[in-house]
Amino acid sequence: MKSLFKTVFIIIFFTGLTRLAGFIFRIWLSRTIGAESLGVYQISFSIFMVLLTIVSSGIPLIISRMTAKYVAIKDKKSEQQTLSSAVIISLGLSVVISLIVLILQKPISYIFADERCIIILLTLLPALIFSSVYSAVRGNLWGRNKYVASCSAELFEQLIRILVCILLLSGLFPIKEGAIGASLSLSIACVFSCIFVVILYFKSGGKFTKPKGYKEIIKTSTPITTIRVASSLIQPVVALIIPLRLVSAGYTSAQSLSLYGIATGMTLPLLFIPMTLIGSLSYALIPDLSSANAKNETKYISSRISTSIIFSLFVAFFMVPLFMGAGQNLGVFFFDNAQSGILLSEASWIIIPMCLTNISSSILNAVGYEIKSFKNYIVGVILMLLCIWFLPKYIGINALIWAMGSCFTVSAILNIKMIKKYITKDLKIARYFWIFTAFLLPSAAITSFCTNLLNGVIPLFFNLAISCSIGATFFILLGLIFNVYKFSTVLVWIKTNNPLKKHNLKRTHKV
Known about the structure:
Largest sheet: none
Number of helices: 21
Strand content: under 5%
Helix content: over 70%
Radius of gyration: 23 Å
Number of strands: 0
């Protein structure tokens, strides 16, 4: 078994490359098709993600768990039979869903604010079908600890999509609507990634055989799928409500779609950058804590939970001053859109509850509290829906930011209260929260000062590089000066971060 640190590093490396490629692609796409078309695409894509969640959420996770179990007992036949059954279930489900959408496309089109949305959704259906096979096979690779193969498949899909989309929108093909070209590129990329991951599966010694265990797969995956589908339904609801509420507040339809495109296609991708690190830690933390929970290693669980949450706090607070101080210039530099930068600066605070929600939800999932974590999320969602319904009249598209921030904040607080109850120990989160808050404000101020001082004096790239470096260095130095964290502590945490080792080393809450 690989150490947790090595697993996290592999995930971060490939996920980082995938997200970097996707981020650069998003910049190019937004500049190529414009904010309005990007908004139309985002609305259709949010519906597609619900359908994708149905066919590729619960089953891959269950396949990963079952595969790990069969690998441990060296039951190769059952492993292959289980995967074969999962592929049949996922593929059949995706085909049925696609047929339903095709048959009901006219009634479905009425829920969209723009007629182009249904065309984009239909273009994405092939991606749904091939992703069903891809996700099941990738779940098997993950369960067999084939991290490089699993992660490289995701990177391969991203690169193929970028290449195809550039070709489709280059003018060589008769595609007038950029959003349709973007959706078509995703479907084509999913075909290639499906073939690629199947090849990796065969090369690693796998094969498809007589299926077995349909009932067990369906029974164990259904609760997980139901929870995740319910969560994913929020995104299209928001995508449909926000433009309508903006129109009711006095914006035109084109303006509302443009603002939604700026917020979701330009601002949010930047806000999600810290999630590359936190998400990788969360993903690796689940099997680590699950194993420790099964062995009843309470001290190790408590130490791992405390360290992970405080580390997530550090990452979040480290990024906020940079976005807060240099947000407008970041929007101009990446998307040539000052409004996205202004929104980024104003929305930077939501990174903190977002990171806390992500890591705390993973912790609760690992110790068997997935349903309780979902209930906490629903409480946050109720507040979010109220915000996006009532606030657009007063603050426009900023209502989306405050809605998301409110949801994450409530969910994070409830999750952490539940974690504290589970481990019956003070996590010392409040102490670090207020310390990092005190560091955040002067760091944001100095970043903003340097950015404004250098505006018009040097090129924007060097402006951002210098101002963000100064802000980041200032934040780190404050922590070292006030002895909040030590680099030696981080190195010790990394070296001892192996779930196979005895956990009798003295742990520290310092980041």
